């Protein structure tokens, strides 16, 4: 009979053998395809590369908004990054992905553990005839475990998918941050454009009010008709009607900014700077550095996410496909038993001589799955192919987005040059018309026409200047610049981290981590407690 020391040693050796079998039986083999990046159709250069305002060199797009040299815009973007609630929500999804990766890693190790026990008692006259007393009691208590060996790489494929999903969640955060920055810049430029248009409308109200005064004076002096007065009042009232519309649009733009900052409307006023900033449309640089189209694949987070989604779906093919093959497991139990038969007592349970143990392999193989498993593999393969096509389409759409914003930026610059000339001409035309009308050389219709044209040209110029700046925002947004703002910073703010630590044991998962830049090659890792 083995001594307790030898029995423990034997159990230990069995556990070591089981561990080696589990780790090394299939560590170099994983069922399912290895992901290969598909061929992507990427242009060599942008269509507008020869334009004088385009520089083909690769610039630093990480803080592109600073090119507008607007300190208010710089502060608003920083405020939105620090306070935007949807961005915080996406940051929390990164923590969720980290936890889900820990779950996938844990599945590689013994999946089931527990304690079990029982107490049975049998009462029968037959027991007394056998000399066992009026009843027979039997008790057992022990521990058990079951370990499905990763023979086909199912659990390692799941870890591979979870790695890709973690990186995809970071890419989602980057894309959300990039979009947030662009939305803040766009709405801020729109706000300043609307303020400029309001200033233009109010200035023209003053000019047109003077025309009403002149027409009324000449009518009372008998040198003009009441028709001139009514026409002047018509033009004035029409211009005045645009003022409340612009004021409404200005407030709506402010409300959008408040939503982006996650603050109530009354707290925005002090963030917009002093009165000198009102109507000051951020001026873009004359030239824009665009680099080359292939840079998009490296820089744009939505492209990174699309490919990482495909990587995850590729790994899931192996997870699903492993179900077609037998699952090998090692199970075992160890405990103590006791009974009250033949002079024994239930209190003898914890004597070493009353121990028991059981170790052995088991195989589970769903041979008759009625095509369910096969079709699950097919469905997963279809999902993977969809992700590949989505990735390819994302790259093509990115190139299209840049081209659209770039051509709009360049053509609006050309348009602004002509509008500046037409606005200056309209101003001179109105001055001449007013002078000639005062001297009786021309009729009042000429003055009214000049007033309308001046307002139209000034308003068009203001809108075009705003469009130039917004199209440049679109260029840099579509080039994938801006998300670098979060580098070296935590994905969630400190108050949320503290609240989560007080509520739940997060271990070290809440500590700031550098964002993963490449998928790990080592899929066998220690559990993340």
Helix content: 55-70%
Supply Rg.
38 Å
Give the overall silhouette: elongated
Structural class: alpha+beta
Q: Major β-sheet, in short? A: 4 strands, antiparallel
DSSP strand content: 5-15%
Q: Whole-number average pLDDT?
A: 87
List the total number of helices: 11
- Contiguous low-pLDDT stretches (5 residues minimum) are none
Instruction: Give the N-to-C terminal Cα separation.
Output: 40 Å
Q: Tell me which oligomeric state these chains represent.
A: single chain
Order of helices and strands: HEHHEHEHHEHHEEHHH
Biggest sheet strand line-up = 2-3-5-6
Beta strands, count: 6
Protein described:
The protein is an alpha+beta fold and 529 residues long. It is 57% helix and 10% strand. The protein has helices at residues 4-24, 71-83, 85-106, 125-129, 154-220, 226-261, 295-299, 301-321, 372-438, 444-479, 494-503, and strands at residues 54-55, 112-123, 135-148, 288-289, 327-339, 355-364. A four-stranded antiparallel beta sheet has the order 2-3-5-6. Strands 1-4 form a two-stranded parallel sheet. The longest helix is centred in the middle third of the chain and has 67 residues, at 154-220. The radius of gyration is 38 Å and the shape is elongated.
